[in-house]
Amino acid sequence: MIVLVVAVALVFTAARLFWQPCDDEDAVSAQVALFRAGTGFEGTDEYTPIGADNSLVQQALTPLRLLDTADAEVAVPDSKNDAGNPSYVPSDRDHLAVQAKIEQWLAERKMLTITAQSPGFAVLRLMDYPAWQVFANGKVVVARPSRQDGLMTLPIAAGTTQIEIRYRATSDVIWGRGLSIVSCLALVALAATARKRDSIE
Q1: Is the pLDDT reported for residue 90 higher than 90?
Q2: Within a 10 A sphere around the Cβ of 180, how many other Cβ atoms?
Q3: Which residues contact 49 (CB under 8 A, 6 or more apart)?
Q4: Number of domains in the chain
Q5: Quick check: helix, strand or coil at residue 200?
Q6: Which domain holds residue 48?
Q7: What per-residue confidence (pLDDT) applies to 91?
Q8: Are 58 and 85 a contacting pair, CB within 8 Å?
Q9: Nearest to 24, CA basis, from 15, 16, 33
Q10: Are the beta carbons of 120 and 97 closer than 8 angstroms?
Q11: Is residue 2 part of a domain?
Q12: Domain for residue 84, yes or no?
């Protein structure tokens, strides 16, 4: 009984002294409302690509923009709105004439067809993680420009470009899977050895 009372007292004291309330826009209810609205929400920094700034990702972005430069329409730092991120304000002077069709937009696979009158950069509402593999007209796109907001940016030539984006396993994931398989096999081998030893005894 004494241990229970002490534990409750310690929890109560810690909650009063060290509790850190979050901002209104970071509360679960506010995040759920943003997610359901489809306007976008600020991600967590723990899962952000290296060099990207979540606070610059604008809300209400279109899935695809074709811009004249790779860094066009990047939000100004410290321009957050009440929901946590800056609102998207399109700039007509940065956009190029384009016809675009999203063929497929799944969690791990996306396909687009873009017809542009002049070269430019396709900026997708998609964080550019290293695991994304991009193909343009069947050829792998290795060099991709980087933006401060971390959104995927692809160079587009004049004419029609068919883009396919796939999420693939990176080398660290493959190594992790391999080590897990080896560990499971070792565990099975040890269990079989222990069972044989027990049967002999």
Answers
A1: no
A2: 10
A3: 127, 128, 129, 130, 150
A4: 1
A5: helix
A6: 24-172
A7: 80
A8: yes
A9: 33
A10: no
A11: no
A12: yes
